[in-house]
Write a structure and sequence with these properties.
This protein is of the alpha/beta class. The protein is built from seven helices and ten strands. It binds ligand LGQLAAA5. The site of ligand LGQLAAA5 has 28 residues, from β2, β6 and β8.
């Protein structure tokens, strides 16, 4: 069996959970960022979380969340991992990890070699790293833009914690990305959609099959 673990991010409907489970993805992501076309309400997220089978890790994606938002979500929605996709400092990552008792995956945007130091810094406070493309300066979303970075920048790089590769991955390029970077975990959002915010079950199946080789 392949050791590659796949995260499908931005699930909004019960049939998305079915597709993720059928494709044997390891993680399902729920987006708590109102500007995203994939944003879910707390009620929606609760239903999706409760419909997730044991074995599918439920990841809550937040962008610079304040304590009130996290408290409101976590009071209602069972989550297994917090994904921080904003400009949270290392101190804030450590604080949220301790405060909520959940593993934290910190996203770090990469565009050039100068961005790699941040991975080392966050690798000492987070439980997992998400190595994503740095968003364009004028982007509305800090992720989920379907934008890839130059994978050669991290080829063969390792950090003290597990990590996932993200950014512009698709069923057509994920295998090459894995082979080039050595990633054992991959994350996708827009690359498995038929329209912004609408997941495509067939694309999810093709993505996971390609990732797992
Ligand atoms: O998916 C979103 O809408 C989103 C919003 C805000 C921050 C991050 C978001 N998604 C994450 O971005 C990466 C890459 O996405 P894509 O595959 O390039 O579309 C992925 O890690 C998502 O978890």
């Amino acid at each position: 069996m392949s050791a590659i673990r796949v995260k499908i991010c931005g699930l909004t409907r019960p049939q998305d959970i079915d597709a993720v489970v059928a494709a044997q993805a390891a993680y399902g992501g729920l987006v708590f960022f109102p500007k995203s076309p994939r944003a879910v309400s707390i009620a929606q997220a609760r239903d999706l979380s409760l419909a997730s089978p044991v074995g599918l890790a439920r990841v809550g994606l937040f962008v610079n969340p304040d304590d009130a938002l996290l408290d409101a979500v976590l009071a209602e929605v069972p989550l297994d991992i917090l994904q921080l996709h904003g400009t949270e400092s290392p101190e804030r990552v450590a604080e949220l990890r301790a405060r909520h008792g959940l593993p934290v995956m910190k996203a770090v945007g990469v565009a050039g070699p100068e961005d790699l130091d941040a991975l080392t810094t966050y690798g000492s406070v987070a439980d997992m790293l998400l190595v994503d493309a740095k968003p364009p300066r004028d982007a509305v979303l800090p992720g989920g833009n379907g934008l890839a970075f130059d994978w050669r920048l991290i080829a063969g790089r390792r950090w003290p914690v597990p990590w996932m590769l993200a950014g512009g991955l698709t069923p057509d390029n994920v295998r090459e990305a894995i082979l080039l970077t050595g990633a054992t975990q991959v994350d996708v959002s827009s690359g498995v959609e038929s329209a912004p915010g609408v997941k495509d079950a067939d694309a999810i199946a093709r993505f996971t099959a390609a990732a797992k080789g």
